[in-house]
Each structure stands twice: as C-alpha cells, then as structure tokens.
C-alpha cells in the first residue's frame, strides 16, 4: 500500500508541474480525520460525505479569490 501511495504522489507532482501552464488545476484536500485505513470500506458513506463538504468549502473559497491572485 505504501508503494502505491508513493507512486500516486509522484504522479500528482509530475502532473502538476506538467500541466501548470496549460490548465487551472485545483487540488482538493483529502479528508480522513480518523485515519481510517485505505483498505477499509466500512466507513465509505461517512468519508464521501466529509469529502463532499470539504470539496465544496475549498471550491467556494477558490471562487471568492480574484483571478489575478489565483494566477500567481
């Protein structure tokens, strides 16, 4: 599992650098305050709900920022 996490992290960093000038990318926060194992699906509904709330909050904050501030 650790190797996959490392692989995904490296790919994310690569994609962020590669597409930084081609598109606006918004990286949303990962929500798992109780540190539920990635292999456990018993809390899926709770995690999806928390992720939806966090994504809405992050996107609303993003939309309130002036475009020039986001470009820097």
Structure summary:
The chain is mainly α. It has helices spanning 2-19, 44-64, 67-71.
Gross morphology is flat
Q: What is the element string, with H for helices and E for strands?
A: HHH
Radius of gyration: 15 Å
Kindly name the structural category: mainly alpha
Uncertain runs are: none
Count of individual beta strands = 0
Distance between the termini: 35 Å
Helical element count? Answer: 3
Q: Which percent range describes the beta-strand content?
A: under 5%
Mean pLDDT: 84
Binned, the helix content reads 55-70%
What kind of sheet is the major sheet?
A: none
Can you tell me about this structure?
There is one protein chain. The protein has helices at 2-19, 44-64, 67-71. The chain is mainly α and 72 residues long. It has a domain at 25-72. It is flat, with a radius of gyration of 15 Å. The protein starts with a helix and ends with a helix. The model has no long low-confidence stretch (mean pLDDT 84).
